[in-house]
Amino acid sequence: MRFAPHFWLRATVGHAVAARSDLIDATAVRLWQIFVEKDEYGPSGMMLLATGGFGRQELAPYSDLDMLFLANSTEHERRHRDAIRQLTQEMWDLGLRVSATTRTLAECADTSVDNPEFAISLIDRHYIAGDFEMFEQFDKDLVPSLHRKLRDPLLQNVAALCRTRHDRYGNTLFHLEPNIKECPGGLRDSHVTEWVTKLLNGRSLAESPLMSSNTKSGRDEWQIGVDFLLSVRCFLH
Q1: Tell me: the pLDDT tens digits for 187-217?
Q2: Is the CATH number of domain 4-148 3.30.460.10?
Q3: Rounded CA gap, 28 and 35, in Å?
């Protein structure tokens, strides 16, 4: 999974991390066609999507790959269990760090405030393979409904996790060896800003009134900062 040419030759690191995400998408689709269904838009009642950093198309060279296998029912899940295991094992054999979860639509809809990490992971998502009509139902109906239901406790949880993380790094930007992802002002804080904006407004930060055309310079400055942190993280990887 070569990364360096994109990283060194493209104008911004955004091209490199997006290209890596596209490459992993294509790899996952090919393995889906080998182990699950020859038609990448099948079978009915089963699909694969990316979440987390993979869902954001923000993959550094050694980022984990968060993948969600979603079934319409426990019967569909049981029917494809061996194929899912083979697909994920093949990705590990390719040297990819896969973190895979399998759930049914009903289990996703029943997600409670006691499992905030899963609900938050669904904020960043994109389709890879499988039943696309099922994905549209999940993407446009189920997930927005879940986030509306859990919005306030999720916001409280995100804030609590953010405070705990900042405390761990002394609530300061100034470290001789900062953690590019987790320190105050690091990449995770940019993710938190996006999550809070989407939970409150149902829109990304770029689409938010906070980033209107009247604040283009602020939007550009924000993206420059995020790209810089991504570049540093890629160098470290």
Answers
A1: 999 999 989 988 888 766 666 555 555 555 6
A2: yes
A3: 10
In this predicted structure, the answer to whether residue 61 has a pLDDT above a threshold of 90 is no
For residues 83 and 196, give the distance between their C-alpha atoms in angstroms, rounded to a whole number. 36
User: What pLDDT, in 10s, does the model give residues 93-151?
Assistant: 999 999 999 999 999 988 877 778 888 999 999 999 999 999 999 999 999 999 999 89
Structure tokens at 10: 């493209």
pLDDT for the residue 78: 94
Q: Checking DSSP bridges between strand 65-71 and strand 98-104, what pairing results, if any?
A: parallel
Domain ranges of the chain: 4-148, 151-236
**Paired tokens of 166:** 């900042």
For residue 175 the two structure tokens come to 């470290």
Q: CA-CA distance, 98 to 100, in Å (whole number)?
A: 6
Beta strands 125-130; 98-104: pairing state = unpaired
